[in-house]
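Let's do one together. I've listed all components of the complex below, 638 residues spread over two lines.
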Amino acid sequence: MVLAYILRILLTISLVSSFAVVARTQTLAERLGYPVGSKLIIVHADDLGETHAVDAAAIKALESGSVNSASLMVPCPWFPEMADYAKSHPDLDLGLHLTLTSERVYYRWPPVAPSDRVASLVDANGYFHHDWDAHQQIDAGEVETELRAQVERALRMGVRPTHLDSHQYRLIMNGRDLFDAMLRVAHHYQLPVFVTADWFVAHPYLQSSLGSGDIVLDHTVTIGPDVAAQKWADFYREALKNLKPGVTEFVIHPGYDDEEERAATRERATWGAAWRQRDYDFFTSQQFRDMLVRENIKPITWRELTELWKAHHSSAPPQ
Amino acid sequence: MVLAYILRILLTISLVSSFAVVARTQTLAERLGYPVGSKLIIVHADDLGETHAVDAAAIKALESGSVNSASLMVPCPWFPEMADYAKSHPDLDLGLHLTLTSERVYYRWPPVAPSDRVASLVDANGYFHHDWDAHQQIDAGEVETELRAQVERALRMGVRPTHLDSHQYRLIMNGRDLFDAMLRVAHHYQLPVFVTADWFVAHPYLQSSLGSGDIVLDHTVTIGPDVAAQKWADFYREALKNLKPGVTEFVIHPGYDDEEERAATRERATWGAAWRQRDYDFFTSQQFRDMLVRENIKPITWRELTELWKAHHSSAPPQ
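Okay, and this is what the predicted structure of the assembly comes out as:
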């Protein structure tokens, strides 16, 4: 009797567990209608609106078709140029690159919200902080105020964003409170946020804050300061050759290595003018296009992901 | 008896009048220690901080020595570049170009003060208005708040301005209330403002608001949209040949006709990239230097005027 009871419990556990396995195997790629094992890629340009050199390079890369997604920095001086472009190219996949820092030295921008309402986000001169040090007290309520102001400015200026992501991953890597502020804003405006499962180990709160209807990409690839300039194409070639099945976002930073960009980024080489030119060069090259074909990698955009997100959230009216 | 009385009155009037004439003939040039009839010129570059193309051209023109004065736009994205330069070149003649508009379309900036405290100065997107139309209600109290915020940011960032002037002459041409707001800020920070007697006929409130200790330049020369591009040098040559005695400020707009400046100014040619390159080319040319010598024109700066201003106001402690 006891044995039969134990056996029944074990069987139940086994069934539940099997079901869980079945549920897990319904990957994001499958939910998008692609066969198991598909390698899907979003080639995403960051930082549009930051400088004209970034805007011009990103527009050219988007129009060449090899970069197929991007996001805009609303507080930045050149945002109006990108808003105008977005308005006249409504089919492009353009999101908002939510921005809480002004990381350069000779070229800076303030928040969109009135600076006295987001006091923890600004320095003594009224700009976003250059960086957040360990003792910086960033107020999550003020973060939410600023994020809403950024989305509202974008909407008012005619941008219809497809997704939200976070400049310098500030909203991803700085604790649950800031991530939840971004999620609330995303849900309010019915937009998916860029999160990948790659980040769950380091930042477990991401997974626990996300709801079942939220989109989670499988992987992300982005180049770092550890890669030497002459190894740039090698890095990307290796990443494409070793691409795992699922949806991967390549986070790239195209820009032109011209007078403006060199001056704007001159205090350090990381994500500087030459870096951005190298990204532009690789992702607009025939070599990159050929690799996508050879490796059977299919480009997708946030538009497809947004449809999925909306299908899940369709019952909820816009707030 | 009556005749003698009338004669005495006439004599008194004549003496007072003669004294007034004597007082008037103490020109600004003479107060600066120059002989009667001297032709003194300030060659003043406007709009520093607006773009890198303007900063780079202005710095080169200042270092060439033929442009000897300039003013900085504190709300603009590239102001930090100029603040850094000003800090490391404390002997240069750099003022603040008080700014209340964001006149371009694809590249814009907001006020320095929290936008909700200067509501009449900002558009729905939080930028300074592109332009002021006839029905715009600009609040003079908010203008003063913003001007103080601009001076405070400049001081905090290490700039020690020599003078104040007004971007697009907004604070000169829009009535007594705005001019008085600028004057109050100028007196508070013990700085002279750029005003010339040329403007008194069109804007009589300028003269009546100014106190006896305020500096008034005699003339100003600035090129306008009525001059064809190929007549640029002719216009300046004529202006130098016909320069009147006294202190004249040449208000010029040097900049480079490069990608950034072309993009930032592309909606109209006036004060655009090519315009600024023409100004740069003329005022850094040997032709211009030679004319100064030939026409016996002596360059002076706001530093000399500031000394005069301070000598008059030295009894007043800084507020």
